[in-house]
């Protein structure tokens, strides 16, 4: 039973992360999906997005920062509700 609870928690966390990714601006969303969900390299993502590799790295950095903000705000809200 304990393993089932852990799996449910993992699923909830995964859904929470994907919801945060969906909340990103389009370019940041696309960059995160290509790099971290689909596993493309920076070079491959740059080719797909039609930007430089430096542009992909920069966009990913801003996206990760925004994701931290979104997830931290969501976690803070959950703690306050309890």
Topology, please?
Blueprint: H1 2-22, H2 26-37, H3 42-49, H4 53-81
Tell me about this structure.
- The protein has about 80 residues and is mostly helical.
- Helices cover about 85% and strands about 0% of the residues.
- The chain is built from four helices and no strands.
- The chain has helices at about 1-20, 25-35, 40-50, 55-80.
Concise synopsis of the structure shown:
Helices cover 85% and strands 0% of the residues.
Keywords, separated by commas or semicolons:
82 residues, mainly alpha, 4 helices, globular
**Which residue ranges are poorly predicted, with pLDDT under 50 across at least 5 consecutive positions?**
none
**Helix fraction?**
over 70%
Major sheet characteristics = none
Shape: globular
What structural class do helix, strand and pairing data support? mainly alpha
Rg from alpha-carbon coordinates: 15 Å
End-to-end separation in angstroms reads: 24 Å
> SSE order in H/E notation?
HHHH
| Overall mean pLDDT | 87
Strand content: under 5%
Total beta-strand segments: 0
Number of helices: 4
């Amino acid at each position: 039973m304990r393993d089932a609870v852990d799996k449910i928690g993992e699923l909830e966390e995964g859904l929470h992360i994907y919801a945060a990714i969906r909340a990103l601006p389009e370019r940041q969303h696309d960059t995160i999906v290509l790099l971290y969900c689909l596993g493309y390299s920076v070079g491959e993502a740059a080719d797909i997005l039609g930007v430089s590799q430096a542009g992909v790295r920069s966009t990913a950095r801003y996206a990760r920062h925004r994701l931290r903000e979104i997830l931290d705000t969501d976690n803070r809200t959950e703690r306050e509700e309890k």
